[in-house]
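Bit of a strange request maybe. I'm writing a small parser for structure token strings and I need a real example to test against, not something I typed by hand. Could someone generate the tokens for this chain?
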Amino acid sequence: MPRPTARVLTLLELLQSGGTRTVAELADRLGVEGRTVRRYVDQLIDLDVPVESVRGRYGGYRLAPGYRLPPLMLSDDEALAVLLGLVAGRRAGLTTAQHTANETASAKIRRVLPKHIARRLDTLLESLAFTEQPPESGTPDSGVLLTLADAVRHHRPVSIRYTDRDGRRSERTLHAYGIVAHAGRWYVTGEDARLREDRTFRLDRIADARVLPGSFEAPMGPGPAQRVLSGFATAEYRHEVTLRIHGTVEQVRAHLPAAVANLEEPEPAAGQDRASERWLRVELRAERLDWLPPLLAALDRPFVIERPDELRDLVTALADRLASRARQI
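Reply from user aminoacidic:
Good idea to test on real output. This should exercise your parser:
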């Protein structure tokens, strides 16, 4: 028979799963009477665990927000899920500058795992491989991340100190629309209040963030993630490329995702299915053009190069090389 202390911890675990639990439900799960449940609740309150009593027909007990984190009870599956999330987040680069927080949190959970679960976790991690390397760039400061999140939620302007990729430093006032995780990096997107233009900033290049008085209205239209991807596709690079490709949106996007190119999808003709093949206009910017001819060949769809002429020459040269090699015996 479980000891009273074990039942009190089980009661805490049940309450931490969320919602209001009736006395009858708790008594049934613990295998005790209702008055014993009330005694266990009193013991949790004596330990400064914030348990609330809810009156009414569907009343019972629930956890209230406390001034500190109460003892956390995790099942084996929950502990494994948390640890895997910490490992995957660290590997993907989606951590903050406080690297030790990730390590110490993992160590604390591993220390209390049952031996059989710990062995299975070690086996999984030893056999786990990632297809992408974590980014070499720095990670954002946790204070900056939380300050920007607060500004986004409450539509408050925020002052940031930013260093761009060329090392130039500036102080900006940003109307932040959202925070986006992409390809192992954190970004914030919003309107630069001075320029009145949308901008995207890497969080690891923000040295300081400070919420300012006032508020702003978030615009309608694309969400933060789409704004970041569109910003990548229209960034200032050496070449501006315009293509027309005959195919479906899915066929084009498989080779030219939203972070690389903007896709203009005309309305289908009368009676034409939206998912059918038709001419699509593609615009992108690139520092180099040599990667585009092989991509267009792999796309294997009819295409027209509107600009630049240099790309047309590169495609012709690739076609000549392929034809020459195909004739070799």
